[in-house]
Write a structure and sequence with these properties.
This protein is mainly β and about 250 residues long. The chain folds into three domains: about 5-75, Immunoglobulin-like (Sandwich); about 80-160, Immunoglobulins (Immunoglobulin-like); about 165-250, Sandwich (Immunoglobulin-like), CATH 2.60.40.3080. It has no helices and 26 strands. Strand 25 and strand 26 (about 245-250) form a beta hairpin. The two termini are about 60 Å apart.
Length: about 250
């Protein structure tokens, strides 16, 4: 057997055992001296159970040789979780601290790697993460045996919260969500925050022509029929009092 034991695997493994090869060899892998389960007539064997393993090789002339044993050990896989499960709502401008929690496995837990929507966050390798933007966050941990696990994703949302203006009146930031983008036959507009003031909505095409204009006394979820719009770039504007939100949209049908 080419590998040097003992070999350690994590959870269900598998571990890989290999041996010397030749076109006229037949192979029989052994576990505790008995034929090992699975595909055997191969120079490579994928191991999922702990135990003592050997390889018995028979050549075309019927001569047989059995290797010395190699020990395979099975380590318990760690379990990674986050201390907060989502969705977590916080105010825009605030932060949320996510902390990794690990059980099982073999301590010490040697490293952490945080991700946002499965994209690695470079440099974020501590056991906690300060979050200031919306997203789905998870952490992968490694224990002292090299075994690893990734936590379930926790979703954070940052929304408009009441604040005081200079005259001590309460104001709320205006945030606009539009979907889908790119769009085809319609778009849905939703505002978070704002006030009960009238809403003006208009859309402009790429050369600045107004192709849609409407107003509402009180805003609610709003759908715009865009079936007759040509393909191309548009600007959607929502005005409420002195607040203006603008977003670029693309029709692609």
């Amino acid at each position: 057997i080419n590998e040097v034991g003992p070999i350690e695997i994590c959870g269900q493994g598998p571990g890989v055992l290999t041996c010397n090869t030749s076109n006229d060899f037949n192979y029989q892998w052994l576990r505790y001296g008995l034929p090992a389960p699975g595909m055997n007539n191969d120079s490579v064997y994928y191991v999922t159970k702990r135990g003592n393993y050997k390889i018995r090789i028979t050549n075309a002339g019927g001569c047989t040789s059995t290797s010395s044993k190699i020990v395979l050990r099975k380590n318990q896989k760690p379990k990674a979780e986050l201390d907060l499960t989502g969705p977590i709502f916080s105010c825009i401008g605030d932060s949320v601290v996510l902390k990794a929690q690990v059980s099982r496995g073999t301590q010490p837990y040697t490293s952490y790697q945080w991700s946002r929507y499965n994209k690695v966050l470079v440099g974020e390798t501590l056991d906690s993460l300060v979050v200031t933007s919306k997203g789905g966050y998870s952490v992968r941990i490694y224990d002292s045996k090299g075994c690893t696990d990734k936590s379930p994703r926790t979703v954070t949302e940052f929304v408009a919260c009441p604040r005081l203006a200079s005259d001590n009146t309460e104001v709320i930031d205006l945030i606009m969500n539009v979907r889908p983008n790119p769009f085809t036959n319609s778009i849905k507009v939703n505002l978070i925050g704002g006030s009960t003031s009238a809403i003006s909505i208009r859309m402009l095409d790429a050369i600045g022509r107004v192709v849609y204009n409407d107003s509402k006394p009180v805003f609610s979820d709003y759908e715009i029929n865009t079936a007759n719009f040509n393909n191309g770039l548009y600007i959607l504007e929502v005005v409420q009092g002195e607040k203006l939100e603008r977003i670029k949209l693309v029709k692609n049908q």
